[in-house]
């Protein structure tokens, strides 16, 4: 497979960037021509229709296609035997599985037929809660094949979180498995689903894959086994090769919903549509990582997050690439696990998160001994700002200073990478994401939304926005378009607001400094402070709470909770109460949201109008006790002293 849109020189980057801004319709039509369409756009339609007021974004509306025909069928003719997914199990002693494009295509067709047999139709929402096994990718692609909208939920979310998402999405179908292996743990996924379904009246069918052979309850009429269903399809198959016709989808039909945290309320369902997402994930995959046919690409993310959607499932498969999918975690059975995998499968491109790098750094160089990393050509990071120390360690000890490091900035809402250097084509710079991809028009604004144009000490600093839509931008938030407008398009007129702060230098390079809203980024996972507070407040003894982030050596940010207990507090029980609060948060959101630190306080610093002054709480959590700024507008300034003392 060749990539006519692959940028190979810095001059071409500048030329392509210029054209993408001056003639976005022409530019993206050329990229679109490299895919297979069932029907081209009607002659009279515009390639792009948009405004950021409603907001409305439509790319190639009226054109018809199916994304799985592009990710699977079109590779069969020439690359059917190319490995599509190499799967490395949690336990290094278990056998690796390799699925060629031919095999993956067949399995997706079989399971797509299973879905149809179970009544799933185009537009239906299917919730997927499976560990990192190939069946997860098969489930995702099978939904896409029949036009069902998938909504994958990460294994670290609780039954309550799943129940909320099922309800919000109006999901009638679930695909899950008995359990998932993660390091030394065995997570009972089906049992969590059973809890999520208590009281649920909309889910008609749960399809259960077997991975851990954990005993599970199976309800007659609702729960069926994946394997039985597939066997039934194979038995009834008439042709030698089962080829389930792919549903005809409009370019702007929804492809999936993925829930993500914001600064207010419950997580929202970010919606991506078929064609724009297809173009964006392929284009960014091929250009940022400079993928060459034959390369083995290892993205260490979980498919439960956007990185796994875009760079384990869709981007690599659309590009006909060979991707490596890993079930386990970087530190089990030991901290050499990633390096083992790189060595064993001769990985060429490694894409991971700064948290993983920092965590592995802390084990020193021993785990790298006797590991052959010479196959590596490109290294990537994603999910949170990377500190220079981690960047240099990655570059020096993993890339041996011969692999370009791409620092890729993007979000669930952006579908794929927006700002990054292109490996070996545009220069890298430690802890800078550098330049926008073609089609991406970033700008920095001040609090009032005025564009910042002045440099102070060689950089300008402000809130990061986008001026115009790229093909992969979110289209709406599921069931609540107004929320989408409010969250992303109302802070600054006619701009998409990312929620991040950034610097820009005179050459147009960007460095992302972190969230400027009430969103935390813990180990590269997004959490809303309000969401965590709501969960803490569910504990019977809690009156109120305030959650802030603080710098954490490995996680990037840690969760610090200030909690006010009711009058019945017994100090000797404090440690137990803290554990109870952690258990409550685990139950309401999931283990990933558990605070790292809890401090009991008698009150929170509030202004006379009742607003919590988070600035002060943040400072205390960061340990900056002597530099709290103006506290005179507080209702009860004495509370600050108490909080400071409690911290000491
Ligand atoms: C942060 C993950 C600095 C950022 C793909 C963004 C980053 C949020 C980077 C989105 C990076 C992501 N440098 N910060 N290279 N990549 N972020 O939706 O704050 O899980 O807004 O998407 O992660 O997180 P999300």
Automatic annotation (TrEMBL):
Domain Acetyl-coenzyme A synthetase N-terminal: 13-71
Domain of life: Bacteria
Keyword list, A-Z: Acetylation, ATP-binding, Ligase, Nucleotide-binding
Keyword Cell division: no
Coiled coil: none
Similarity-based family: Belongs to the ATP-dependent AMP-binding enzyme family.
Protein name (database record): Acetate--CoA ligase
Lineage of source species: Bacteria, Pseudomonadati, Bacteroidota, Chitinophagia, Chitinophagales
């Amino acid at each position: 497979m060749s990539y006519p849109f692959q940028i190979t020189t810095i001059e071409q980057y500048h030329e392509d960037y210029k054209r993408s801004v001056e003639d976005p319709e022409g530019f993206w039509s050329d990229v679109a021509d490299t895919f297979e369409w069932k029907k081209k756009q009607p002659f009279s339609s515009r390639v792009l229709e948009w405004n950021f007021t409603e907001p409305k974004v439509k790319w190639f509306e009226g054109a018809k296609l199916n994304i799985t025909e592009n990710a699977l069928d079109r590779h069969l003719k020439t690359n059917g035997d190319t490995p599509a997914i190499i799967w490395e199990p949690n336990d290094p002693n278990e056998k690796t599985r390799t699925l060629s494009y031919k095999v993956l295509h067949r399995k997706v067709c079989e399971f797509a037929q299973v879905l149809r047999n179970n009544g799933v139709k185009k537009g239906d929402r299917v919730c997927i809660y499976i560990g990192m096994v190939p069946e997860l990718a098969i489930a995702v692609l099978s939904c896409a094949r029949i036009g069902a909208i998938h909504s994958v939920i990460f294994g670290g979310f609780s039954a309550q979180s799943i129940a909320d998402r099922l309800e919000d999405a109006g999901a009638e179908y679930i695909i899950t498995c008995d359990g998932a292996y993660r390091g030394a743990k065995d997570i009972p996924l089906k049992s969590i689903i059973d809890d999520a379904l208590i009281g649920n009246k909309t889910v008609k069918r749960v399809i259960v894959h077997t991975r851990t052979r954990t005993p599970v309850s199976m309800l007659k009429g609702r729960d069926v086994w994946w394997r039985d269903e597939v066997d039934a399809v194979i038995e009834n198959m008439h042709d030698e090769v089962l080829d389930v016709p792919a549903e005809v989808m409009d370019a702007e039909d929804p492809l999936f919903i993925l829930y993500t945290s914001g600064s207010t309320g419950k997580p929202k369902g970010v919606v991506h549509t078929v064609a724009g997402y297809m173009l964006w994930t392929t284009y960014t995959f091929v250009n940022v990582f400079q993928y060459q046919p034959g390369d083995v690409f290892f993205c260490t993310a979980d498919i439960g997050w956007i990185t796994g959607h875009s760079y384990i499932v869709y981007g690599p498969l659309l590009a006909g690439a060979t991707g490596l999918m890993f079930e386990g975690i970087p530190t089990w059975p030991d901290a050499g696990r990633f390096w083992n995998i790189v060595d064993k499968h001769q990985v060429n491109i490694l894409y991971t998160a700064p948290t993983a790098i920092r965590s592995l750094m802390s084990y020193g160089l021993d785990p790298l001994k006797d590991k052959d990393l010479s196959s590596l050509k490109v290294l990537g990071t994603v999910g949170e700002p990377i500190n220079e120390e981690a960047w240099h360690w990655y570059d020096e000890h993993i890339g041996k200073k011969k692999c370009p490091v791409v620092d890729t900035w993007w979000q669930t809402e952006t579908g794929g990478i927006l700002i990054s250097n292109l490996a070996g084509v545009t220069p890298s710079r430690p802890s800078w994401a550098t330049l926008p991809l073609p089609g991406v028009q970033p700008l920095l604004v001040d609090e009032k939304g005025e564009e910042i144009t002045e440099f102070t000490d060689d950089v300008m600093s402000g809130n990061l926005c986008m001026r115009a839509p790229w093909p992969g931008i979110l289209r709406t938030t599921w069931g609540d378009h107004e929320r989408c407008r409010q969250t992303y398009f109302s802070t600054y007129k006619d701009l998409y607001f990312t929620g991040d702060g950034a610097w820009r230098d005179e050459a147009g390079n960007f460095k992302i400094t972190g969230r400027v809203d009430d969103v935390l980024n813990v180990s590269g996972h997004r959490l809303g402070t309000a969401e965590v507070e709501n969960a803490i407040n569910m504990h019977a003894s809690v009156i109120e709470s305030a959650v802030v982030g603080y710098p954490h050596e490995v996680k990037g940010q840690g969760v610090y909770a200030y909690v006010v207990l009711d009058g019945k507090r017994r100090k000797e029980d404090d440690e137990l109460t803290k554990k109870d609060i952690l258990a409550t948060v685990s139950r309401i959101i999931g283990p990933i949201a558990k605070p790292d630190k809890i401090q009991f306080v008698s009150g929170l610093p509030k202004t006379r109008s009742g607003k919590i002054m988070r600035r002060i709480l943040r400072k205390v959590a960061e340990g900056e006790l002597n530099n709290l700024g103006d506290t005179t507008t507080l209702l009860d300034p004495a509370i600050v002293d108490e909080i400071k003392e409690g911290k000491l």
